[in-house]
Amino acid sequence: MPNQVLIENDAVVLGILFLILFGIFKLAESTNRFLVSFFKIFPPILLCYFIPGVLNSVGFFSGQHSGIYPFVSKYLLPVCLLLFTLSLDIDMLKKLGLKSVLVFLAGTLGVILGGPLAAKVVSVIMPEVFTGKEGGELWRGLGTIAGSWIGGGANQTAIKEIVKPSAYVFSQCVAVDVLVAETWLAVLLIGVGYTKRIDNWLGADQSLVADMKAKLHDYKTKNERIPEFMDYLTILSVGFVCMGIAYFFADLIVPYISANHPSWSKFSLTSVFFWVVFITTALGIFLSQTKVRELENVGASKIATLILYILVASIGMQMDLLAISQNLGLFLVGIIWIFIHVIFVLTAAKILKVPYFVMAVGSQANIGGAASASVVAGAFHPTLVSVGVIFSVLGYSVGTYGGYLTALLIRWVLA
Fold first, then answer.
1. What is the pLDDT of residue 323?
2. Given this model, what pLDDT does residue 312 score?
3. Which UniProt keywords apply (predicted)?
């Protein structure tokens, strides 16, 4: 990246990031044929990563020296995780059926086991990928991919702050994450046009999807309402209070572990952010079983989604796109990894005889998160968009834990 940058003032950079986000999503709403076709190939979330990445790479601004990402990751990320997890609706998951949840979890298992297997295969056939200083640290970057592919961008950032890959490694891994994930999204969307054929091959009961449509339509009609000022204040208060609680206890736990169990540092247990994410997610799961979950009816996850895209843009502005070309073998890891995930979800769908809709949304809720899972669900029927959100929230709930476990497994198989 160039030594000199054009814009150094973070206030200006933040304004540019919001302008980018607004421009992307405003254009994505257009009915213009060219733009509709364009966004089918290049989904908004892909552009949210890569436009700031391009600007960073050409020296328009410096993500590495900016204070935006540290602020967003430290203060807004825990709130984002909390608000997403808050909308975890176990009753609705029950209505969707055990088979649907099992297919989703099969995809999660495919990511957890697929990462170490893919890394091991590539280390054998292309050992140079994992050699040298940067290669030896790749398990950290691959762990962030696992966090993203089990949960979403918020989990990815949480893993990044826990295992701390270098900016160079992280740039490479974000590129693998986004490009491979968006390619799989395109495949799933193409498959929507062949739903009947795929369902016949799976031996699926298509009445399951019809039942989902009816249940979700009734739920939305009965519970959703227009938010007021106190609703927004309550949502943000819950988020930031829980973040404060998480930091309070993390500041007590970390010094104790550092003094009494210093060897636990190899598991990142002496990282303040590890405990912040752990406590925040646990609080979110607990509160989702109380009346606090009703905040979802006035837009808790929408606020979380806005924070998530700010987070995605701030991650993008740390990317050095020139670093991507330095280790193209890493893309082979991603391709093998996603292939293993696909085997897991396809096998589960075949055994359980669930429709392609469940398989596609369950898979994308893992690999792409709430935004793209909703896109896949909506491609079947607008009423089903919330299914993508529900599964994605489940992913956000386990994404950090699963991603962290995957990172440790990758480090173990490469040792």
1. 64
2. 79
3. Membrane, Transmembrane, Transmembrane helix
